[in-house]
Design brief:
It holds the Pfam family AsnC_trans_reg. GO terms for molecular function: sequence-specific DNA binding. Keywords: DNA-binding, Transcription, Transcription regulation. With 152 residues, the chain is an alpha+beta fold. Helix content is 36%, strand content 20%. The chain is built from five helices and four strands. The protein has a four-stranded antiparallel sheet. Helix 2 crosses helix 3.
Amino acid sequence: MQIDAVDQRIIALLVADARASYADIGARVSLSAPAVKRRVDRLRSAGVIRGFTAVVDPAAVGWTTEAFVELFCAGRTTPAQIGAAARRHPEVVGAYTVSGEADALIHLRAADIAHLEEALERLRAESFVTSSRSTIVLSRLVESPGVGPSTG
């Protein structure tokens, strides 16, 4: 599917505010609301836009402690096995296979250090995990809601 500059701006605007109306987006990209809707429908049907979601402030729900955990796995552990295990833990907000020494990088959020430790222990108890290395986040410096060019 071809994605032009207008599609890219529409995507960026939706990433910034998924509740923006087609009329508001159209005003920003010089299209009518129906034209924006047609483009969004096309992007959705092509799988470029997979859905719309609410972004919740973790602090507002009390999950203010976060860490990145490098997982080191046994033998021929597959990405599918790591992904399935990560989905079993509600504290996991991201899981990635990575290059380098570790096999995977897991992003955890928890209510406090005790909750984080408990989540780490459960994660490390997965049968394929041989060791882990954790880094606790002190402060967030940059966080972007998505991909694409600036909404200008």
